[in-house]
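#structure-requests
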Amino acid sequence: MTTGEPAAPEQSESGNSLLNAVKEIVIVLVCALVLSVLVRTFLVQAFYVPSQSMENTLMVNDRIIASKINTKIGGVNRGEVVVFKDPGNWLPESHSNAGPVQKAMEFIGVLPSSSGDDLVKRVIGVAGDRVVCCSPSGQIVLNGVVLNEPYIKPGSSTNQKVFDVTVPDDSIFVMGDNREASADSRFHLDENDGAVPVGNVVGKVVLKVWPFSQFGTVGTPEVFDDPALNKNPGAGLLPSAGEK
């Protein structure tokens, strides 16, 4: 004989199990989001390549990973490809079309940054280096050493601008690998000798992750390992720009 009363304890237990499961999922998601933001803030960040200036090393719309921890620990070094914030009037004013969802996903690191004020170039000189353009053969001269630059886009010359600068303290001199399509340090010599403050550097580009067929590391060319680059910048240099 039944009483017709509902099985209240069983229903209660079922409800508690569902609530606990939801709580666990929420906790996992929150922890994952916090971890993602921390990784983006302190370790690595994804970016789009916005222009042709780094061809053929990096192509337009390539997705790249910049390591912030490398820069914090090892500083910024010659030959590295770096992402940096516009030091002032290098880029035209831009207005992002990203919606709130996309911006949120960029903030937590799910999508690459599309802020429009980031640039990617190769570091040619660091503080104290003397950078001269050009040698009789049209090459960059760094601290008296004529650079053989195999990373430059084939067919691209490097003598669009004649200059002779010593990189200021806490700064870097940057150039694109596609020299004929890169409005880099050479074209901003009137401000800080064209150099970018180290504080503007977001990170060192270490990986190209998309398209997946081009997945791989982005290294530092061997030419920058030459010990002669560390000698007295004034020794044995070619005449400075404008000298006979």
